[in-house]
Every structure is written in C-alpha cells, then in structure tokens.
Amino acid sequence: MADLITSLPKAELHVHIEGTLEPELMFALADRNRVTLPFATVEAVRAAYEFTDLQSFLDLLYQGAAVLHTAEDFDDLMWAYLQRARADGVRRAEIFFDPQVHTERGLGFEVFMDGFARARQRAAAELGITSALIMCFLRHLPESAALATLEAAGPYLDQIVAVGLDSSEVGHPPSRFQRVFARAREAGLRAVAHAGEEAPPEYVWEALDLLGAERIDHGVRAEGDAALVSRLAADRIPLTMCPLSNVRLRVVDRIQDHNLKRLLDRGVMVTVNSDDPAYFGGYIGDNYRAAQAGLGLSDAEIRTLDRNSIGASFADSAEKSRLL
Ligand code: ADE
Ligand code: ZN
C-alpha cells in the first residue's frame, strides 16, 4: 500500500508554503539574515510544536516566517517543498501563500513572487512538477487590508491562479470578504476558502454562496449539516482535507475519528493534503498513509482520493487527462 500511495501521480491542493519551513532551513535562514530565533536548537523548535488549537499554531507559524527576507530565501523554501512533494508522487501542486505575513514585515511582492517563480520554473523543468499559486487573505485582518493586498498583487496576477482565505477562523466569517472575492473573480482569479475547520457549517455555506468558493479547504465540520453534505456531494464541490493537521490542531481527537471516509462514502469529493507539513509531522504521503491505516481505506479508496485530487485541481483538461 505504501508503494501504491507513493507511485500514484497526485495533486496537492492544500499546502501553505510558509508551513513547509523545516526547522533546519529556519536556522539556516536565521543565520543568513542575522535574525535571532527564540529557540537554541532545531530540537527545541520541534519540541515547541505542541498545539492546543489553530491559534496556538498560527502564532508559531507567523513567527517562523520572519526568517524569510530575500527572494533567494523564498526560492529555497519553494524548491525544498517541491522536491519533497515530488518524492511523494506529486505532479501538480497548488500552493497557498500569505502575502500579508510578509508585507506586514515590510517586504514587497517582488521579493516573494520572484523567489517563488524561480523555484517553480526549475521544478517544472527538472522535476516534471507543475505548480500554481493561491493567494490567501488573512481573515483576522479587515477586508480593507485584503483589498489593498489584491491591489498590490496587480502586476503578478498572471502568476496567481486563485484567491483563498485563511488564518484564525472563528469570529471571522467569509461574509466579511465578499467584496474582495468579487473583485478577484472579476480579475479572472478562481476562488477557494478555508471553512469548517474550527467554525460551524454556516461558514461553509457562506464560502460557497457569498464568496463563490469552488473548493472548500478542510470542511471537516460540514458533516454536522446533512443539507450541506448533500449540496457538496451533488455539486461535486471538493474538500481539501488534511488529516494530520486536524489531529495536531485538535479538530479531531484521533486519526481513527476523522470523517474523511464517512464523507467519501456519502459521495463527497474528498482529497488528501498536508496543510503545514513542517509543523504537523507529515507530507502528503504521510497523510495518505495515516488515513489509510487509521480508517482502513482500501486500495480502491486510495485511488479515488488520488483521482479526486487531479479532478479537483485547476489544471487544464489536457494536464488532468495526462495525470489521470
Ligand atoms: N494557515 C496555515 N495553515 C492554516 C490552517 N490550517 N487554517 C487556517 N489558516 C492556516
Ligand atoms: Zn490550510
């Protein structure tokens, strides 16, 4: 089974580039940029990765990202992720980035976009992995900040496939971001949104009906609303689920309790992804293996999850056919 999981060509649709920063690279970049970390060793960083909820993780995620200063840093980060993903059989990666985490520290779009572009071009040429960028707005900040971010992204829109919504969920509903999502869609971008990770099903309804989200990132809590599950299944709306993340952030108690198989059984287009692999102890292959072992997924179910990832991607139809 492990061989099957690695060998299937797959798409990763839910991974935050800032969440792929391994402690070893964090230290190397801190050294390079003369940043002082609040940790003495790589082991101390890993030991700090004991999360009680989403917010306890986000605090460390944003702190870690402060070592990223130059285009070379973002190139190194993206290249490390793409190599690691390719080793798991990823052939298409749609990667979130949080521009506001970097612009709030004084970096301009050109710094991270140039770094991402270099690594993505090299990965396409040398690894045979195609990639796309999804620009997320931080939902704990006001919509006006998201609108300013979309404006600043103007010169780079040809490198961005979609917009997304992430960060602290509860208390920051999708309805607050209707104008910026409408504007992004007018500009030709696709739309996705994190919803139903910690917040109730209403957030998923809002993401679909008010933001025009074409995929729901997580969607774990959608299960509590039968009408919503029927809608997701009937409209083939993909859920980009991240089982190891949900365990580490206490969205579910144990992998055995994860609802991805129940949702799959009810006809929902579930996909498996890694979210923030450097922080949650596993890349996409580890997530497939944990779900397989914890939920007793069959060979056929693994293949369905894999096919779903390709079908749910924003790749063009020629690329999807090739990967399928
Ligand atoms: N940013 C990075 N990972 C996230 C997650 N799982 N939920 C919300 N925002 C995030
Ligand atoms: Zn996420």
Task: Please supply descriptive tags for the structure shown above.
binds adenine, 17 helices, TIM Barrel, alpha/beta, binds zinc ion, 324 residues, eight-stranded parallel sheet
Structural write-up:
- The protein has 324 residues and is an alpha/beta fold.
- The chain has one domain (2-312): TIM Barrel (Alpha-Beta Barrel), CATH 3.20.20.140.
- Helices cover 49% and strands 15% of the residues.
- The chain has 17 helices and eight strands.
- The model has no long low-confidence stretch (mean pLDDT 98).
Briefly summarize what is shown.
By secondary structure, the chain is of the alpha/beta class. It has helices at residues 2-7, 23-32, 42-47, 54-64, 71-87, 99-103, 109-126, 143-152, 178-186, 201-209, 226-234, 243-248, 260-265, 277-280, 284-295, 299-311, 317-323, and strands spanning 10-16, 90-97, 130-138, 160-166, 190-195, 215-218, 239-241, 270-272.
Oligomer: single chain
Number of strands: 8
Low-confidence stretches: none
The percent range for strand residues is 5-15%
Overall, the morphology is globular
Q: Largest beta sheet, briefly? A: 8 strands, parallel
Bound compounds, please? adenine, zinc ion
Supply Rg: 18 Å
Alpha carbon gap, first and last residue: 19 Å
CATH H-level homologous superfamily name: Metal-dependent hydrolases
CATH topology, what is it called?
TIM Barrel
Helix and strand element order: HEHHHHEHHEHEHEHEHEHHEHHHH
- Integer tally of domains: 1
Mean pLDDT: 98
- Helicity, in percent? 40-55%
Class per helix and strand makeup: alpha/beta
CATH architecture: Alpha-Beta Barrel
